[in-house]
Specification:
The complex is a heterodimer of chains A (102) and B (255).
Chain A lengths: L2 H24 L6 H8 L1 H15 E2 L2 E2 L3 H14 L4 H18 L1
Antiparallel strand pairs in A: 1-2
Chain B lengths: L1 H24 L6 H8 L3 H17 L3 H11 L3 H12 L4 H12 L2 H8 L7 H8 L4 H6 L1 E2 L2 E2 L1 H25 L14 H10 L6 H17 L7 H6 L7 H15 L1
Antiparallel strand pairs in B: 1-2
Helix pairs in contact in B: 2-10, 3-4, 3-5, 3-10, 4-10, 5-6
The chains are: A mainly alpha (102), B mainly alpha (255).
């Protein structure tokens, strides 16, 4: 088996298992209150980490580039209660515009 | 029987002002269609990244079949880009697999955070969980609860868009421009910020978000990609502060 297919197979199976573990083992039942409080905070922690890494990480370095500018513009749109589509467009247009100038 | 009826009618009446008020103030759509509508604005970006993955994968010598099968089975952009770039640069298959598994490790805690909202038998839960990716998981955060059907609707659209994009990239080459030139890479952090902001309603979730972002940024320069986001899940432990207080005071009173 080639390296490509080995990677496809192993990573595919690993990803299926990672996604399924929680819902299969702990699905459909209420969590005890103490752990529910902690698990409910996974969403804000993970979302914030995604924002940070997708805006400011490039490979293994921290960078300040057009994505960061797009994020600032998006934050402004969010504060003005713009709908999701507008927020996303504002970020993309800001980044694309700055790249066009550069 | 009559007592039950009176009781039920009474509780319905008691609830009515509340429920009509919340219906008026919060016309939130739910269901599979709502997921589809919510993801629609992002589909061009997802398609474009699918195309660029197909182009890159083909250029790295993966071949059409392996490239498309990977999008159909792994269905996670960052891990797939990692595999192709590690193998394309002459790296070992072990290094490629390790990088991809690290990048996908975040799906463990993400799926766990949503686990209690999955329904049905084990096989159904396993299959539905496969539609969980960053965007579908994030869009399904509704009013502090995870809406499984929004995740499934959005996840299906993402799955079709990502796989179709990959096939276009493999067969049609890079006739489509660079997604970065269109600013599409800036769309994703903006999306996640927009979905994060309504969750920041109390001090605990604000603390978890700030700590999560801080951990991810601090670890980015010193750990392999994928680790920062997984490590950021530790920020949810701020929830133990208040939860631990009653038991602590019990222990103190005992001591």
């Amino acid at each position: 088996m080639s390296a490509a297919w080995t990677a496809v197979l192993v990573v595919g199976l690993g990803t299926v298992a990672l996604k399924a573990a929680g819902p299969v083992l702990a699905g459909g039942r209420e969590l005890p209150q103490g752990s529910a409080r902690v698990v409910n905070l996974l969403a804000p922690a993970l979302l914030a980490a995604l924002v940070a890494t997708q805006a400011f990480a490039s490979e293994e370095a921290l960078v300040l580039d057009e994505r960061g500018a797009g994020l600032v513009a998006a934050a402004g749109a969010i504060l003005l209660k713009a709908p999701l589509l507008v927020v996303v467009l504002v970020a993309a247009v800001t980044a694309a515009g700055l790249r066009l100038i550069a | 029987m009559r007592a039950l009826f009176i009781h039920t009618a009474g509780s319905v009446l008691a609830r009515m002002p509340d429920s009509t008020a919340s219906l008026k103030s919060r016309p939130r759509r739910t269901g599979y269609g709502a997921g589809l509508r919510a993801i629609a604005p992002l589909l061009p970006a997802v398609l474009a990244f699918g195309v660029s993955f197909g182009v890159l994968s083909d250029a790295a010598g993966f071949g059409a079949a392996a490239s498309i099968v990977m999008s159909l089975t792994t269905f996670a952009g960052s891990a797939q880009f990692a595999i192709v770039s590690v193998l394309g640069a002459g790296g070992t298959v072990v290094a490629a697999i390790a990088a991809a598994v690290l990048l996908n490790a975040r799906y463990g805690p993400m799926a766990l955070s949503a686990a209690s909202m999955f329904r049905g038998g084990r096989v159904r839960r396993l299959l539905e969980a496969q539609l969980l990716v960053d965007e579908s998981w994030a869009l399904a955060q509704r009013d502090g609860e995870f809406d499984r059907r929004v995740m499934i609707g959005a996840g299906l659209a993402l799955y079709v868009g990502w796989s179709t994009g990959t096939a276009i990239g493999v067969f049609a080459g890079d006739s489509i421009g660079d997604p970065a030139a269109l600013g599409l890479d800036a769309a994703f952090p903006a999306l996640f910020l927009a979905l994060l902001s309504p969750l920041l309603r109390n001090r605990d979730s604000l603390a978890a978000a700030l700590l999560g972002a801080g951990i991810a940024l601090a670890l980015t320069p010193i750990t392999p990609a994928g680790i920062p986001v997984v490590a950021a899940t530790a920020a949810c432990l701020v929830g133990l502060r208040q939860a631990a207080q009653p038991s602590r005071s019990v222990e103190e009173s005992r001591a």
